[in-house]
Design brief:
- The chain is built from 18 helices and 24 strands.
- The protein is an alpha/beta fold.
- The protein is elongated.
- The relative contact order is 0.08.
Length: 592
């Protein structure tokens, strides 16, 4: 099989494109999928009434057109249904692979269309085993995939396929079915595994480290989120959320930014006519909703009745202006933070909302009213305040009387005193709202503690390019980061959680490695501890054992081992002292 079928980390396969943010199986959804880091697009393929292959999931469109009896041109005009040729042309332009889900089309005709185009990375899949058999009989060289429903034996259903695609998303904990024995069996048969479309961040954290080919997702950014380089632990602020993907200052924009691995979302707070805290940038609602008028003149009931999404894209029709509390809850669900810019609101009222949400440690504040910032700091010394260098004539004035935790430089500021600013002990943040790659490179070269970025995904690409050029390494997803260049026998790297205190890190060593080679508090590359005596994924096939260091064998760790011995579903992670999971990941590649 081709070399690209052995990635060091699972591929992000965009399920019908980035279908959380655009109508599935459209060119817009596939474009967004590339922006969000997808390596493949899952494309549903049917035959239109005139024999043309088109991309659409259902047999009937939302407007009632039957795919099999309607010409491709009419489908494109009425329902934005693209032809397969148009999808292939876009894939070639964007460097994406196509993961074909053949719904109602001749499998060999689909393969012929892909082969004629010269597209290298393509996988042909279907639920019906007969489709896989037809492809093999025709001598198709692309890998084949059998989509496996619930309640069938995967190895029987996918016996003739190169890839076992598990469609288990409706199970409560499908990850528990991915036992070492299951993965070993697939490996022994020479078969790769692709997983169901997954959008839950907790389940994804358990899946993205497995030795599998790929994971489907409506939110492909969640499969391989941004991770800071090993030698530059930069933290990231998403300006008004992922505002190129979803409408700014909304919950979907915030969720996308958090799923993509960014640490904070910047938002703007104003006060409604009846004193409620609402998230919106402008003083009026005209630009970002279907209404008009001043925010300060409208009660919350009127503000909540406005459509804050349709102006951006019809896919987001019905999205509402969020309250500050809703955005705080979103950040808490993702275990991330909020940068609160106070536009027109009482500073103490904003602080109280953050305190009630128990999010003080995950937020920081800025606003034009520095007296309000001082009031926040006086009311809660734990609250973190930001100042902007541009607001003060002298550097020392930025710190006088406020003791900010963060000082921000704009990309257009004079950076001559940046090194002097570091001496004050505050975190250095650089803000850039543009799209110029050269400016991104300048920001990256400055190595600030924090970046405040509007174009998140260009920053991700430029960071990856800069690190690759300097022979550096980018951290792995799942709160795991390579700590040194010690190779595991399976070809991966050692990894260690980078955002937890050292005393809370589980010390794990792979049984295949000599004890003296680790030299650090590390986690075996492909998964981490197996609960004390179980096989780890890096040792599949060789029955190597991972062992927990006795000092970190906590009560929680012992409980995991005990439940495994009782026959309960296994969980292949090490329990740190604080009870959190350590998810290992594999592969030294520079990630984005």
């Amino acid at each position: 099989m081709t070399g690209w079928l052995d990635p060091t980390r699972p591929y992000a396969i965009a399920h019908r494109g980035a279908s959380a943010y655009a109508l599935g199986n459209t060119l817009r959804a596939f474009e967004l999928a590339c922006d969000l880091g997808a390596a493949f697009w899952e494309v549903d393929i049917r035959t239109a009434g005139d024999g043309v292959l088109v991309a659409h999931h259902d047999a009937v469109t939302s407007s009632g057109l039957v795919i099999a009896t309607t010409a491709a041109e009419d489908l494109a005009t009425d329902c934005d249904v693209p032809t397969l040729d148009a999808v292939i042309a876009l894939a070639l332009q964007r460097g994406a692979g196509i993961y074909a889900d053949i719904k109602d089309a001749d499998p060999v005709s689909v393969a012929d269309a892909l082969q004629r185009s010269g597209l290298e990375k393509a996988i042909l899949g279907a639920f019906e085993p007969a489709a896989v058999a037809a492809l093999r009989a025709a001598g198709v060289t692309y890998p084949t995939s059998a989509l496996v429903p619930l309640d069938v034996d995967p190895f029987v259903h996918a016996a003739q396929a190169d890839i076992i695609h598990l469609c288990w998303e409706r199970m409560e904990r499908p990850q528990d079915m991915l036992t070492p024995e299951f993965l070993t069996s697939a490996m022994a048969k020479g078969q790769r595994i692709v997983l169901w479309h997954e959008e839950d961040p907790d389940r994804m954290a358990e899946l993205r480290s497995l030795p599998i080919l790929g994971i489907c997702s409506d939110t492909p950014e969640l499969v391989q989120p941004f991770c800071a380089p090993v030698d530059w632990r930069v933290r990231t602020v998403a300006h008004r959320g992922a505002n190129s993907v979803a409408p700014e200052n909304t919950v979907p924009a915030a969720s996308c930014a958090f799923a993509a691995g960014f640490d904070w979302v910047e938002l703007d707070v104003r006060t409604s006519a009846d004193g409620q805290l609402v998230v919106i940038h402008d003083a009026t609602v005209d630009r970002t909703t279907d209404g008009s008028g001043l925010v300060a003149d409208l009660p919350m009931s009127a503000l909540r009745g406005l459509d804050a999404g349709d102006w951006f894209d019809p896919h987001f029709a019905g999205v509402r202006l969020p309250t500050l509390n809703e955005m705080l809850n979103c950040a808490r669900r993702w275990k991330r933070g909020i940068y609160i810019e106070i536009k027109h609101a009482d500073a103490i009222a904003v602080l109280r909302e953050v305190q009630l949400a128990e999010m003080v440690e995950r937020c920081f504040f800025w606003g034009w009213d520095y007296d309000g910032l001082r009031a926040i700091k006086a009311a809660d010394p734990a609250a973190r305040i930001m100042t902007r260098r541009m607001d003060f004539e002298r550097l020392e004035d930025c710190f006088a009387g406020l003791s900010p935790d963060i000082i921000e430089y704009d990309s257009t500021d004079d950076w001559s005193d940046i090194e002097a600013a570091r001496e004050y002990g505050a975190d250095l943040m650089i803000c850039y709202m543009g799209r110029d790659p050269e400016v991104f490179d300048r920001v990256i070269a400055a190595r600030p503690d924090i970046v405040n970025i509007d174009d998140l995904f260009t920053f991700r690409l430029r960071t990856r390019a800069a690190i690759t050029e300097s022979d550096g390494a980018v951290g792995a997803c799942g709160d795991m980061t390579p700590v040194q260049g010690i190779p595991c026998s399976c070809g991966g790297d050692y990894r260690m959680g980078h955002d937890r205190p050292a005393r809370n890190r589980a010390k794990v060593a792979c049984g295949r490695l000599e004890a003296g080679r680790t030299g650090s508090e590390s986690v075996c590359c492909k998964r981490g501890a197996c609960g004390g005596s179980r096989r780890c994924f890096c040792c599949l096939g060789d029955h190597g054992a991972c062992t927990l260091n006795d000092r970190t064998r906590t009560k929680r760790s012992r409980q995991v081992v005990a439940t495994e011995r009782q026959g309960a579903p296994r969980r292949w992670w090490s329990s740190a002292v604080d009870g959190t999971r350590s998810d290992a990941a594999c592969g030294p590649e520079a990630l984005g």
